[in-house]
Amino acid sequence: MINVNEENNNFSLFPNKKKRYNDYINEIERFTGVTDMTEEHQEHSPPEGELPNNGHRFRIKDCALAALSTGKSAQNLRELREILTTITPDSIYYHFWGALLRPRFDDPLYHNDFAIWSRYGLKDSVLAERLSIIDPADYPDLEDLRAELIEIIEERLDQVEVAPWARTNRQFFFIRSQLVAFDTHHLIHEPRDLADVVPKMSVGSIFLHVIDARRRTENRVDDFQTWIRDCYTGYEDLCRELSVLDPFFSGLSQIRGQLSAIFQSYFRR
Questions:
Q1: Which of 21, 71, 95, 132 would give a disulfide with 113, using CB separation of 3.0 to 4.6 Å?
Q2: Sign of dihedral through CA atoms 46, 51, 52, 54?
Q3: Of 115, 147, 176, which residue is a domain's last?
Q4: Is the pLDDT of residue 152 over 90?
Q5: The CA-based dihedral angle spanning residues 120, 98, 35, 199, taken in that order and rounded to the nearest 10 degrees
């Protein structure tokens, strides 16, 4: 994640930098809906393992996933495999999880960008189905996920005589992600408040506190569990219910609905 704090930019040394900074802020505002990117809204992501709380209170944050070009693209399956061996892990993250934060117009049967391109770019439905069933939440880190991707693609290359090609205008463009997080200035004071607050959270907040948290926190769990386990006792049953939630094959609105149902069922028994 990044800090878009104007104080960190030396505009006097680079005259064009202020324009680029303002253009960037305008793009973030357009993307996130936040119209005041002043210092109080600009914040680093929590450092590794840090709780988004103030004392025993849970601090709700929101986010946007900025898409940045890597300058790399693949025309055929062999090129895809070669680039995957060295591409930044942030690109793999984006092509699996990024779809949750952007509008989807592709076939919902295919749950990541690699599967979608295999189906509609390479016209290889067999490979598309194999790639689509990959659940990134099953892998300890992005390097393990990278290894699984490469293994499936290599198996497919061994099965075909000629590596599938896409048309010139259907290349696979590798994008990397940059998560921009900002404070909503809303606090949750105790766990039972989650039943009322979670249904009103933005999808960006759900992404940050559930999806990104599983990569960021030491135990690879959502921020709600981390807060509850570290600050309270007696909520083991609730945490077990949260642990079985698989966020990948659902949209963020569905994840929010599932979380809301868990919290409302638990606290309103």
A1: 95
A2: negative
A3: 176
A4: yes
A5: 110
Query: What would the pLDDT profile of 65-118 be if each residue is shown by its tens digit?
Result: 889 999 999 999 999 999 999 999 999 999 998 888 876 555 567 889 999 999
- List Cβ neighbours of 184 (8 Å cut-off, separation of 6 or more): 60, 61, 62, 205
pLDDT for the residue 261: 97
Number of domains composing the chain: 2
Residue appearing with tokens 């990278």: 146
Q: What is the pTM of this model?
A: 0.74
Quick check: 188 pLDDT over 50?
A: yes
Q: Is 175 exposed, middle or buried (0-12, 13-18, 19+ CB in 10 A)?
A: middle
Domain that holds residue 133: 68-176
Q: Report yes or no on 92 lying in a domain.
A: yes
Q: Rounded distance, CA 178 to CA 184, Å?
A: 19
Q: Output the CA torsion 189→64→225→149 (10° steps).
A: 180
154 and 72 part of one domain? yes
Nearest-Å Rg of the Cα atoms of the chain is 20
- Can you say how many angstroms the Cα of residue 64 is from the centroid of all Cα atoms in its chain? 9
Indicate the range of 48-62, 173-187, 232-246 predicted with least confidence: 48-62
